[in-house]
Specification:
Helix content is 75%, strand content 10%. By secondary structure, the protein is mainly α. Strands 1-2 form a two-stranded antiparallel sheet.
């Protein structure tokens, strides 16, 4: 779409100047919101790193227990066992508020002991499962921190897009339009000034006759 030139007038120039001030004010507000959100992200990063480290260390320990358990039972037996043992962790996705922000997160409800039925299982498997259960709340908290982190990061990107739009599209158009109006008004004033001089000289020449 071609850029339309505004109608040159003092009122148009005043309107363009007001628009420029308004968009500069909006830009400042958006930049402040972006910077505040970045500070919130920086505050979350150490918590997220700590949560990840804690979860990964515990999962590493659980992994060793599972390997020991697998060495005592075949993979086929574990496959059959998984078909009869019902899920023991109760979680659901729900709206969560963290750091004053509402987003979709994981809510941990609790765990129940698995019923192995007639299967005899090695003690390492029980230890591994209870290690996972004990760590699951930390896992859900880590996942929620990650969701919060990426939600805030998306908000920062949206703020930056708004700043870029104001800087690269709106303000340049307003400034260019204001420049065009000022030049056209100045040109009209010069033409009017020359016209008056010509008229005055013409009147003076007629008066002498």
């Amino acid at each position: 779409m071609a850029f339309e030139r505004p109608i040159p007038s003092r009122l148009t120039l005043l309107r363009l100047r007001n628009q420029e001030r308004l968009y500069r004010s909006i830009k400042k507000t958006v930049e402040d919101a972006r910077n505040a959100t970045i500070q919130r992200i920086r505050a979350i990063i150490p918590k997220l790193e700590s949560a990840r480290k804690s979860v990964y260390e515990e999962l590493g320990r659980v992994s060793l227990l599972l390997k020991a358990a697998i060495s005592r039972m075949s993979i086929e037996d574990y496959g059959k066992l998984s078909e009869v043992v019902r899920p023991s962790v109760d979680v659901e996705f729900t709206d969560i508020i963290m750091e004053g922000l509402k987003f979709r997160g994981l809510e941990f409800k609790g765990v129940s002991s698995p019923n192995y039925g007639i299967y005899a299982i090695p003690p390492e498997l029980d230890s591994a499962l209870y290690g996972i259960y004990g760590n699951f709340r930390a896992i859900s908290e880590m996942m929620n921190l990650e969701s919060l982190f990426y939600t805030l990061l998306a908000r920062v990107r949206e703020y930056q897009r708004m700043v870029n739009a104001i800087d690269n599209v709106l303000l340049p158009r307003i400034i260019e339009s204001a420049k065009f109006v000022r030049l056209k008004l100045d040109e009209d004033e010069r033409e009017e000034f020359v016209r008056r001089i010509v008229i005055n000289r013409l009147l003076e020449s007629l008066g002498r006759r």
